[in-house]
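Quick one:
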Amino acid sequence: MDQPITKKPGGKAVSFGAIALIAPVLAILAASVWLAARTWLSSAGSPMSTNGYVAMALGIIFSTVLGCGLMALLFYSSRHGYDDIRYDEPHRPDDDRD
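Output:
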């Protein structure tokens, strides 16, 4: 019980820089949630057509497939050494045309 409230269990105090970074991010998050809720409630009475539902479903499916494909490429390149950069060796092209 001797520790101040601003101390973490590890013994480090919460810095002003961390607070200065987290506070605006939380303010932006709160504003975006408020705007989304306001927009959602103001458009609650307008119906969506079948074409709108189809377009929304295709957009969700395409975005999900694209995200999964990019993550798969990221893991593939990481596992096969394409992301390894060696700064201590000079760049040598594969085909030496001397």
